[in-house]
Amino acid sequence: MNTPTTTVHTGRHFLQIPGPTNVPDRVLRAIDMPTIDHRGPEFAGLGLAVIEGAKRVFRTASPVVIYPSSGTGAWEAAIVNTLSPGDRVLMAETGQFATLWRTMAGRLGLEVDFIEGDWRHGADPAAIGARLAEDRGHTIKAVMVVHNETSTGVTSRIPEIRRAIDQASHPALLLVDTISSLGSIDYRHDEWGVDVTVGGSQKGLMLPPGLGFNAVSDKALAAAAANTSRRSYWDWHEIIAANRTGYWPYTPATNLLYGLREAITMLEEEGLEAVFARHDRHAAATRAAVRAWGMEILCADPREYSSALTAVMMPDGHDADQFREAVLARFDMSLGTGLARLKGRVFRIGHLGHFNDLMLMGTLAGVEMGFEVAGVPYREGGVRAAMDVLSGKARP
Amino acid sequence: MNTPTTTVHTGRHFLQIPGPTNVPDRVLRAIDMPTIDHRGPEFAGLGLAVIEGAKRVFRTASPVVIYPSSGTGAWEAAIVNTLSPGDRVLMAETGQFATLWRTMAGRLGLEVDFIEGDWRHGADPAAIGARLAEDRGHTIKAVMVVHNETSTGVTSRIPEIRRAIDQASHPALLLVDTISSLGSIDYRHDEWGVDVTVGGSQKGLMLPPGLGFNAVSDKALAAAAANTSRRSYWDWHEIIAANRTGYWPYTPATNLLYGLREAITMLEEEGLEAVFARHDRHAAATRAAVRAWGMEILCADPREYSSALTAVMMPDGHDADQFREAVLARFDMSLGTGLARLKGRVFRIGHLGHFNDLMLMGTLAGVEMGFEVAGVPYREGGVRAAMDVLSGKARP
Amino acid sequence: MNTPTTTVHTGRHFLQIPGPTNVPDRVLRAIDMPTIDHRGPEFAGLGLAVIEGAKRVFRTASPVVIYPSSGTGAWEAAIVNTLSPGDRVLMAETGQFATLWRTMAGRLGLEVDFIEGDWRHGADPAAIGARLAEDRGHTIKAVMVVHNETSTGVTSRIPEIRRAIDQASHPALLLVDTISSLGSIDYRHDEWGVDVTVGGSQKGLMLPPGLGFNAVSDKALAAAAANTSRRSYWDWHEIIAANRTGYWPYTPATNLLYGLREAITMLEEEGLEAVFARHDRHAAATRAAVRAWGMEILCADPREYSSALTAVMMPDGHDADQFREAVLARFDMSLGTGLARLKGRVFRIGHLGHFNDLMLMGTLAGVEMGFEVAGVPYREGGVRAAMDVLSGKARP
Amino acid sequence: MNTPTTTVHTGRHFLQIPGPTNVPDRVLRAIDMPTIDHRGPEFAGLGLAVIEGAKRVFRTASPVVIYPSSGTGAWEAAIVNTLSPGDRVLMAETGQFATLWRTMAGRLGLEVDFIEGDWRHGADPAAIGARLAEDRGHTIKAVMVVHNETSTGVTSRIPEIRRAIDQASHPALLLVDTISSLGSIDYRHDEWGVDVTVGGSQKGLMLPPGLGFNAVSDKALAAAAANTSRRSYWDWHEIIAANRTGYWPYTPATNLLYGLREAITMLEEEGLEAVFARHDRHAAATRAAVRAWGMEILCADPREYSSALTAVMMPDGHDADQFREAVLARFDMSLGTGLARLKGRVFRIGHLGHFNDLMLMGTLAGVEMGFEVAGVPYREGGVRAAMDVLSGKARP
To answer: Is C242 at the interface with chain B, CB within 8 A?
Structure first.
């Protein structure tokens, strides 16, 4: 009875990687409607709705540019609009995605000052401030930081980084990647003085992948206007001009925009504050489980715990990917792999997007049972500890 | 952090009533296709596929009649085809659905011998045998039993009932309601010598409600041919005749038939034996949880435990419906209510249909956390016990 | 180039039978959502919405009972609630559906006075009045008429029939089948003094098949209360009682009800008057085409032209079904067959439901080209004539 | 009756712009499934299926790179992989899309020799050959041509252009835009010796917009390997490497890939030759209609007629966009606008993608009736002429 022989999975797959996340039925059904003329009057209503809605989610009064692209494309867009080959930028090694963005910056000709990190901490505001203070000649054109590092479950403190830049009285632009935080973790483009916020559709926005976002400050727009860097597809100017009446200069990903309209509606029905509080609760419950299992959370600084995902360190001598494969085979749940230097050493639990208490409990039970079936040493009680948090029995 | 103030639910609802069950995406998407001409050549392929597929699920070589109706309609069809007003039938009071079927039988003019029950046991083969043995004149025309009593989580032992009828050498027809067992619990129309099996779409068949089924033995067909009872919509004859070429005498529920075709495909991809084993595992895990909580399972005879649902008795002084409402409000999970004489005294956990280990764990965690938030006295450890069953740590 | 060799059809099928009709994407997508607990609080909102909405479509303040059934089931429901075996009823032979309803009435034990017809006219108010006038003893318990005879494209004049009954001062109930008129052709349950209106989901309501309707007057309810006829599934009483709070006594076809809610919304967005005017225009254009082709419309009385479908008589020596098969094979369009005595002699063009001018033009072009490819003698100009009507160039 | 007062459209919109095209239900429903882990084993099956399938549609044994982007992005990808700022390229002014691609080339730093055109002819193989022959120093690095010019309905003769290049013994790469021809008009990447073929999802591939394609010859790959141009998102190397096992280096547009898999299945069920023949028939019928109306086809050379769309010249003194608006308002059909220098002077009828004879007839009837309601002078008979082509009565 305890040795299922079938390999056919039934019931719903648990997609608990830190993105793409579980897409709500309402969003999928919205996408599943006939494509309309992207030059016709009906489209303008859709276009304006998603552009204005996106601004509310990014918390900005400035333009938000929506690309048919992955989030990686939106990274590139942020760079080619504001920076030119040879420009110097300051980045912080928070994990694999910061490293990939740095690699891209290099390929696009930027000179990157990369503040090394241990992949267990966020970008250090003090270190950034120090580097900028040293840069008397203001050769650093931009500070580029990943808000929520998807590879580690560490959330950098953007307001403190902003203050560090300001305290150094440095004119560098601030570019922030919110691909895995937007719509899950509190984020304020305008209030925090960010110049370019990079987003993607497939995480907190609860959409399939295929849309990239740039929220763009006036300062960034001015930098772009002055920037002679060669670019075409990613160029903000034409898109923002066309967006004024709800259109795009080239064919947008119409059906994904249907989904975006519905996803924004859902986020606003719940309320962004409630969305963030929900993610905080689920993250707290997850960490309670991890501690009860006797395992270590990768994120070393409680101020930087991610509410979108939790990376868990495997006990020595146990391979995280073997564990993940066992969980997938036995319990039909996808967990996030350890990336690059973390390969085999951590697994990641995504608890963001269209999610709730019982989905989280199924997730954590799958992890705890996965330890059992994969022979990973653990203490019982993780699921119990999470229930105590969610039911209010325990303070997290 | 532990006091969510939002009333907007996110993530997937946990529909853990014992039917309607969670409809697979594949089935919903199959239904979501344009309706076709029910008299055209394409329809015949659909019709034959679902008629033949249904026969494999009912495990019969005899006709299966598919109605545009609820399961209640299929109850009526079984009666009006084989029995006439004034006919005497033998029924067993296994719970609310047996009682409702009896009420229907009365309304349709049958004289019902109702073997009383305590709603904690299945139909008693010995009692049935005894009644039939007494009936020397063979005035009892049919024995009517509910296989899986949805109101109690008790599964009657049909093969033993069949043997009891045979041992009494009684010619009564055997009519069995499998609405909440078909596709979840082992059932064999032909091998068990059942004359009419009544089914519905919205439980183990993983469809929305709207289809009713009658599997019909040769003996039942002969009884119907001789039966002068007035009937039209439910009459088997015309439907079976039209079904030979894949059609229906009146417009069938085309789109639900699309879903039925897909659902049968899914059941056969998994394999019926694997489907039943899965339900057995989940039921065992659920019972382990109930026992660990220190609660009582309504079903009193382990031979009759239902693999489709488990009815749990509430501690004295606690209302099951208040508990259910708390679970719905806080954890967005629907549990089954106690029906009729069980109102307020039990709640029912559905663990049938399109379901898996982690969905069950979310379900049981919702129950355990529900006890906490609703102030119902319980022992911790139910979720833990279920995990031990599902992970193979404990023998159930 | 003119001899396509592929048998794989592309593009959208033209479903131009007089029902099931083309289901709107919005309705299919509404159906394609997870089934909910039919006893939970969310369901009540759905239930009340469709019950109240259906009343607006039937134009009644009285209850509308919605069954999980085909329209045929709703026929049976109308009979078994109001009439008893042995009761005498008056019916009019308007075509195949009137004949089938009469057959059902006979099977259910009614004694039917069937006013013969030529299948080219509606029910004759004068003949009905005469029969009722003769019935001094008021032995006729009901007049049963098909509003729009789907087999012939003839719409009976219900208000005149009502007047005939009134003029005869006869107490008979008036039962009307609106399966293929409701939501397409003006119909007023209350204003016209109808006692039971029978409806189905798959025509003007733009849904897949699977729902049956009975709108029920106070007089019909009183008749039902006094009626001792055996019935259970179809019994109005329990359903109407449960409907008061938005529920059903047995599991309703939840997902089709989602679709019904959306379909009613769409009908009301367009406005019922606009819906009827649209159907009138399309019918006028279709008749203009038929006349231009030199063919004869089956309906012999212009007062009774159906706005939902047009039955066209084939030239002598040409088989309508061979023509239909050629159209299906070559142009992927389903046309309605000639039924019973009309077999091979007429084909039917459905122009009801979710439909518009260009869909009609594709339909009529398919007919006109079908004549060409099937070698049916015709005059060119049908499509042209319809365009003149639709573009306003010609008065229909 | 001829003056509909409602502005609510019913029935299906006719999306007859030359892309985005009507997306088949099967494709939309395939997209409407839960997003899966793009790093998991199930994804690899999807990835390999679409990569291999795309190669069959492009008719190449070389890699096809699939981007989360619009077709415009795929234009940029073709350029930045093979060419560097300062490189000289030869382009032909076939219409607005050739002009836009030229503008992009300029923005990306290329020096463009632009062979002027009248927007009524395709790229002239002789002119291209002559320019290349003059280029003794082989400073021209690439010839860039639009296969099917979506703005004009003119299809350039790629094989002849290939021959012209070969006859000039010129080493330039051949880059071809097939955004509006792929899957509609015969195209052979390998056989025709094309180096980079640019495609998009939203035309003949019958998908929503959001995917861009580059089919890449060995020669193009070699050029890319030697090309030091700065690029990251569009770089072929990493994608092709990851594609070998079915993955992507960044998150692909998973759900659109579901749709692509289904669309390729549909194209292959019909057979590419049959798909092309169907488009040829529909284009021939459309041209017959245009001629019968007494209007002029924009494409001046019958060898270059597009089978995907037909651009129609408006009579002098009549504005094409006013006509299009009237058609949209009255008949709910979207036609393509005249672009740039053709603004107001032509409208475009898309007859590509998921389409069939009766959809075309609805389309052409909408145009003919549109002339009537908009007061555009025309001769009757266009619809008739198209029917004669489609029914085989007339040779086109």
So the answer is: no
How far apart are the CA of D166 and the nearest CA of chain A, in angstroms? 31
CA distance A268 to chain C (A): 20
Check: CB of residue B236 under 8 Å from CB of residue B216: yes
Alpha-carbon distance D54 to D237, whole Å? 18
Q: ipTM > 0.95?
A: yes
Q: Which residue of D has its CA nearest to C22?
A: D11
Write out chain B residues lying below 8 Å of C67, CB-based. Answer: 69
Distance CA A138, CA A87 (A): 11
Which residues 6+ apart lie within 8 Å of D14 measured at CB? C358, D331, D332, D333, D334, D359, D362, D363, D366
Q: Is the pLDDT of residue C6 over 80?
A: no
D210: left (phi over 0), alpha (psi -120 to 50) or beta: left
Phi-psi region of B365 (alpha: psi -120 to 50; beta: other; left: phi over 0): alpha
C32 touches chain A (CB under 8 A): yes
CB B64 within 8 A of CB B51: yes
D330 is in an annotated binding site: no
pLDDT, position D396: 58
Within 8 A of A278 by CB-CB distance, chain B residues are 4, 6, 10
How far is C-alpha A185 from the chain's CA centre?
Answer: 9
pLDDT of residue A7: 67
- Residues of D with CB below 8 A from C383's CB? 361, 365, 383-384, 387
Angle subtended by helix axes B96-107 and B71-82, to nearest 10? 50
Residue B322 touches partner C, C-beta closer than 8 Å: no
Q: Hey, what amino acid is at C71?
A: G
How far off is chain C from D337, nearest CA to CA, in Å? 20
CB-based contact, D238 to chain B, within 8 Å: no
Q: What is the mean pLDDT of residues C363-384?
A: 98
Neighbours of chain A (3+ CB pairs under 8 A): B, C, D
Chain D: give the shortest CA distance to residue B33, in Å. Answer: 7
Under an 8 A CB cutoff, do A269 and B8 touch? yes
For domain D25-268, the CATH class is: alpha beta
- Specify whether the backbone of C378 is left (phi greater than 0), alpha (psi in -120 to 50) or beta: beta
Q: Do D35 and A107 touch (CB under 8 A)?
A: no
Q: Which of D25, D26, D34 sits opposite B25 (nearest CB)?
A: D34
* Residue C42 CA: distances (Å) to CA of B313, C258, D379: 26, 12, 58
Find, in chain C, the residue whose alpha carbon is nearest to that of A34: C25
For chain A, what are the domain ranges? Answer: 14-22+271-391, 25-268
Amino acid, res. C101: W
Residue type present at position B112: V
pLDDT given at position B93: 98
The predicted pLDDT at position A5 comes to 43
Share of chain A above pLDDT 70, in %: 98
Instruction: Give the Cα separation of B322 and B374 in Å (integer).
Output: 8
Residues D308 and D18 sit within 8 Å (Cβ to Cβ): yes
* pLDDT level of residue B180 (50, 70, 90 thresholds): very high
CATH 3.40.50.300 given to domain D14-22+271-391: no
Collect all residues with Cβ–Cβ distance below 8 Å to A88 and sequence separation of at least 6. A110, A111, A112, A113, A139, A140, A141
Copy the structure tokens of residue A235: 């160029």
Q: Tell me which amino acid residue A83 is.
A: L
Q: In whole angstroms, what is the distance from residue A253 CA to residue A207 CA?
A: 12
Report CB contact under 8 Å: D230, A85.
yes
The pTM (predicted TM-score) of the whole model is 0.97
**Where residue A1 falls among pLDDT bands split at 50, 70, 90?**
very low
Chain A CB contacts of C34 below 8 Å:
25
Q: What is the pLDDT of residues B226-239, one digit of tens each?
A: 999 999 999 999 99
